[in-house]
Amino acid sequence: MGRATAGSARRTRRGSAAASSPAARSRRGRGKAAGGTPGGPGARAQPPGPFDLGAQSERWAAFQERHRLSCEEAARLLLDAYEYRGLVKHTGGCHCGAVRFEVWASADLHVFNCNCSICTKKQNRHFIVPASHFKLLKGDDNLTTYTFNTHRAQHTFCKTCGVQSFYTPRSNPDEYGIAPHCLDDGTVQTTVTENINGKEWEKATKEHKTIRDTSKP
C-alpha cells in the first residue's frame, strides 16, 4: 500500500541483497528448529538439544520410528503444532508455478482491500502475517521487485508470469502481505474484506486500530 509517484523497477540482487530476500527473511523469522543428533529416516530418537524427555523417551522414539522421521523433522512437527495452534497451513504461488510458498494463518482470513494507486492498478487484496509464519518453498531466484515513493513496500512478483502472490507492505515492512486468490484450494473457510483508504495512507494507517497488530504472532 502506498501513494503513486514516479517509480522504478529493480531486480532482487544476490550477494549483499540476499540477506533481505524473502527466503532469507522467512528463515530468520522461523528461526532454527529444535536441535538434536542428526539422523535419517528410521534413526533411533535422541532428545532434541539439551532436553531430557524423561518418561516420554520411549513414546518419542516410537513416534519417530513409526513415521520414519529424523530428530529435526519430529521436532519441527512438535514446534509447529504448538506455535501454530489454531492456524492452518496454506500453500500457494504464482501462475506458472516457479514461485511456491507456505503460510500459517487462520482458515478465516481478514483481507485488506487498499485503494492506493498501485493496489488499485493490480487489485492487491491481501492478508498480513508475521515473517515467522511464511516460508518460501522455491522461486527466490525467479522473483523481481518493484518499489516507488518511500521504497518501503516491496512489490515482489514472478519474473516469468508476472503474478504477485505475496509482497512486503509499507504498513508492516517486516511482515508479508499474502494474496488470498493465490492460495491453493481447500484451506480457506471464510474471507472478510476490509476497505483501506490508501489514497490518504498516512491518515488511514494512523487511525486504524489494528493494522499493525495483524501480523503479530
Q: What does this protein structure show overall?
A:
By secondary structure, this protein is α+β, with helices and mostly antiparallel strands. Helices cover 21% and strands 26% of the residues. It has five helices and eleven strands. The chain has a five-stranded mixed β-sheet with strand order 9-10-5-4-11. Strands 1-7-8 form a three-stranded antiparallel β-sheet, with no helix packed on it. Strands 2-3-6 form a three-stranded antiparallel β-sheet. The longest helix is centred in the middle third of the chain and has 13 residues, at 71-83. It is elongated, with a radius of gyration of 20 Å. The two termini are 22 Å apart. The model is unreliable at 2-19 and 30-43 (pLDDT under 50).
What does the overall shape look like? elongated
Spans with pLDDT under 50 lasting ≥5 residues? 2-19, 30-43
Total strands: 11
Hey, roughly how much beta strand do the residues contain? 25-35%
Supply the number of helical segments. Answer: 5
Largest sheet: 5 strands, mixed
Span of the ends, CA to CA: 22 Å
What's the Cα radius of gyration?
20 Å
Mean pLDDT: 77
Structural class call reads: alpha+beta
